[in-house]
Design brief:
The complex is a heterodimer of chains A (285) and B (486). Chain A has 285 residues and is an alpha/beta fold. Chain A is 44% helix and 20% strand. By secondary structure, chain B is α/β, with parallel strands linked by helices. The chains are: A alpha/beta (285), B alpha/beta (486).
Chain lengths: 285, 486
């Protein structure tokens, strides 16, 4: 008996907005190919409207995320790492396909990415102890400073490092209590879509992490121009376009993290998306 | 209710108790402080600075051109490369300790000069501005040789040359807030004081000379907005630190976007002072008054919105009106003066404009019946009630002695109303219930929250805002970050 060759079931790659997988409201998609030029998928091409929807979702979700205990946020991020671990072969396939890496190299990238998530999971309840302080003011006050989330953070994920780079730029703002809108690598978006699928099953509350695929120029411009985005990480922006986008971001006095080498400044990304809030409390009988 | 507030008082009069201005010796003209010396500007243009309480001329100061700014930046760069970056932290710290001590020694002179040039009451310049400036130098002096332990990794490096633009509301104190952390971390500076209040910065230059601070480590360029713009546009700077309006801060951020120059901004605010029904009423009234009328309300973190729980609103307003009537407005050099002069004609017209807007929006105006001096710039303490959250007087910074009162019913509503602002600099919470205070503080989008107090500052306590109030912190360990490449 000859068995009929089985046709694989391919996946539709969607945007991840407010905890749901949606096609772009624009109806657009674009073709993604592997590093060798083979067809991989038609991926949703997010629009400005999709981005605005994501900002609304993120704004609503941010306070809920911050209201959770730091311990709880750590467990959610750790859960994300657990699920990534269980899907590491699939992740490695996509990273390999996207970035042109051979099997073991791709697996190494995924392993480092998962370890990075674990690193962030462990940070959630230490950030306040490292970045906060009590301040010995000259007067009868208990004065303390705590790092609080900046709010809604937009990140332009690195263009080349499709998964490891993405994990780093979303992990930092999430771990300190922000809600995130991430724009995936334009040419290598499928690992980012996998991350959104993992987030959906890792108890990350809806809207806390939103991932958009599409044209970086279009989405990054809209992200930097959006008045209700508090901060942007321009990690994946072309160096010659950073200035222009940073100028747009200035209209709403956004915090702007420009591309930098994380090896030289290991905590810069973590510090970039916290605000120091200082409370003076009277002491008396 | 306002008539009742007045009738309760009777007449209270005090004899004048003026502080002598003779301790200050003003020169007729001041040059730029470049490379450790007072120097003539290239253009010989000058600006006259006046006493806003009388309108009388105090002195003329140089109007620095972009060529002068360039000289200042070059001087700072030379000093950075040749001297300051090679000076050990311990030695840098000792210069700052000297500066702190010299400021203390000459404190009264600085206080009187600040009051003359700014218009603020001598009680404030003497008890707050000048001691706080000295304390700021003293605090950061001690950090200079301990940066390895500040939490930014081993041997954090300075940024280089910092351009620092400061406002007119706390001229000396803002100079201290800018210079002390920059110098402690090993940067050199070009300081640009405000157009209307340059004199204490120039007196500080004398202190720097007395401290034998190496030439060029601090340069001071006086001038107007054009001078500030020339500083922002100078490509030889590694850092700009700006305190002032949100409009100017936003423009600076835009201009620096392509260069990527490090930037910290301390901008405007519309602070909410939230009064719950269990607030300690006597302290609360003093705090609310201090929150808005301190320094004539020329305070970025002023508690310019009062949010009162409905159940106590009548009682709070009765006491508030009564206290406003008692404020002594007048000669800033008088030791009993509570509210001094508005700093400039421009600011006075802005306040008039916003108060007119408040009236036209339908809010009820209560203004102190105090007599105002005939010369100089004055505005009587004013409270608006019946204010709606969408009114401009509830949303826009007035930067004057004008308070807008709104009410709320629940803690959730208080938080929502307090956060209903594009700014996020400071808030106050008045309640005897600690758990509620901390619950509210956690939810306020503000860089500083004062609980049962307001407008407190300390060199160890980080200060700065969120959203349109800017980014970066001044004060405390956090204040070091603004001047380190970390």
């Amino acid at each position: 008996m000859t068995s009929e060759p089985r046709l694989g079931v391919t996946k539709t790659y969607k945007l991840f907005v407010n905890g749901a997988f949606v096609r772009s409201e624009s109806g657009r998609s674009y073709e993604v190919t592997s590093s060798t030029g083979d067809f991989v998928a038609n991926v949703a091409q997010g629009s400005r409207k999709d981005l605005r929807d994501a900002v609304v979702a993120a704004r609503a979700a941010q306070s809920r995320w911050w209201d959770q205990t730091a311990y709880n946020r750590g467990q959610v991020l750790y859960r994300l790492a657990e699920i990534a671990e269980s899907r590491r072969r699939e992740l490695a396939d996509h990273v390999g396909l996207s970035e042109g890496l051979k099997g073991s190299a791709a697996r190494d990238v995924v392993a480092r990415s998962i370890d990075r998530l674990v690193w962030y999971a462990g940070w959630t309840d230490k950030v306040a102890q490292i970045l906060g302080s009590t301040n010995p003011v000259a007067g009868p006050f208990f004065n303390f400073s705590v790092p609080t989330p900046t709010g809604v953070v937009g990140v332009v994920a690195p263009a080349t490092s499709s998964f490891e780079g993405l994990v780093d730029v979303v992990g930092a703002p999430l771990c300190v209590g922000n809600a995130v809108i991430a724009i995936a690598s334009e040419t290598r978006p499928t690992p980012a879509v996998l991350l959104s699928e993992m987030a959906a099953t890792a108890d990350v509350p809806a809207g806390v992490l939103n991932i958009l695929t599409g044209r970086t120029d279009e989405l990054a411009g809209a992200l930097c121009a959006h008045d209700d985005v508090d901060a942007v990480d321009l990690a994946g922006v072309d160096p010659e376009k950073v200035g222009e986008l940073a100028a747009v971001a200035a209209d709403s006095v956004k915090r702007v993290l420009r591309p930098f080498d994380a090896e030289d400044f290991p905590l810069r990304r973590l510090r970039a998306f916290v605000e120091t809030s200082t409370v003076w409390h009277t002491i008396g009988q | 209710m306002s008539d009742l507030a007045r009738s309760e008082l009777g007449s209270l009069t005090y004899d004048p108790a003026p502080e002598s201005a003779s301790i200050v010796t003003l020169k007729p003209h001041y040059g730029l402080f470049l490379d450790g010396k007072f120097t003539d500007p290239t253009s010989h243009e000058s600006i006259t600075t006046i006493n806003p309480a009388t309108g009388a001329d105090l002195a003329t100061v140089a109007h620095a051109s972009s060529a002068d700014v360039d000289r200042a930046v070059r001087s700072a760069r030379r000093a950075y490369e040749k001297v300051w970056r090679k000076t050990s932290g311990a030695e840098r710290g000792k210069y700052l300790f000297r500066i702190a001590r010299l400021l203390q020694e000459r404190a009264r002179e600085f206080a009187v000069l600040e009051t003359l040039d700014n218009g603020k009451p001598i009680r404030e310049s003497r008890d707050i501005d000048v001691p706080a400036a000295a304390a700021h130098f003293f605090y950061y002096a001690g950090w200079a040789d301990k940066l390895d332990y500040a939490g930014f990794g081993p041997a954090p490096v300075p940024l280089g040359v910092a351009g620092q633009i400061i406002p007119w509301n706390f001229p000396l104190l803002m100079a201290a807030w800018k210079l002390a952390p920059a110098l402690a971390t090993g940067n050199t500076c070009v300081l640009k004081p405000a157009e209307t209040t340059p004199l204490t910065a120039l007196l500080l230059a004398e202190v720097l000379q007395q401290a034998e601070l190496p030439p060029g480590v601090v340069n001071i360029v006086t001038g107007d907005g054009a001078t500030g713009a020339a500083l922002v546009d100078h490509e030889g700077l590694d850092k700009i630190a700006f305190t002032g309006s949100t409009d100017v801060g936003r423009e600076i951020q835009r201009r620096l976007a392509t260069r990527g120059t490090h930037l910290t901004l301390e901008l405007g605010g519309k602070g909410a002072n939230i009064v719950f029904d269990d607030a300690p009423l006597d302290e609360m009234i003093e705090g609310v008054i201090d929150g808005i009328f301190f320094n004539q309300g020329h305070v970025c973190c002023a508690g310019s919105r009062l949010l009162v729980q409905e159940s106590v609103a009548d009682e709070v307003l009765r006491r508030l009106f009564r206290r406003v009537e008692q404020l002594r407005v007048g000669n800033p050099l008088d030791k009993n003066t509570d509210v001094g002069a508005i700093n400039s004609a421009a600011q006075l017209s802005r306040i008039h404009e916003m108060v007119d807007v408040g009236v036209s929006e339908g809010a009820d105006r209560f203004t102190s019946s105090c007599a105002l001096p005939s010369d100089g710039y004055w505005f009587a303490p004013t409270v608006f009630t019946n204010v709606s959250p969408s009114d401009r007087i509830a949303r826009e910074e007035i930067f004057g002695p004008v308070l807008s009162v709104l009410t709320f019913r629940t803690p959730d509503e208080a938080v929502a109303k307090a956060n209903n602002s594009l700014y996020g600099l400071a808030c106050g919470v008045w309640s005897e219930k600690g758990s509620r205070t901390l619950w509210v503080a956690e939810r306020l989008r503000a860089g500083v929250v004062w609980s049962n107090t307001y407008n407190r500052f300390d060199p160890t306590s980080p200060f700065g805002g969120v959203r349109l109030s800017g980014f970066g912190r001044e004060g405390g360990r956090h204040g070091l970050e603004a001047y380190l490449d970390v």
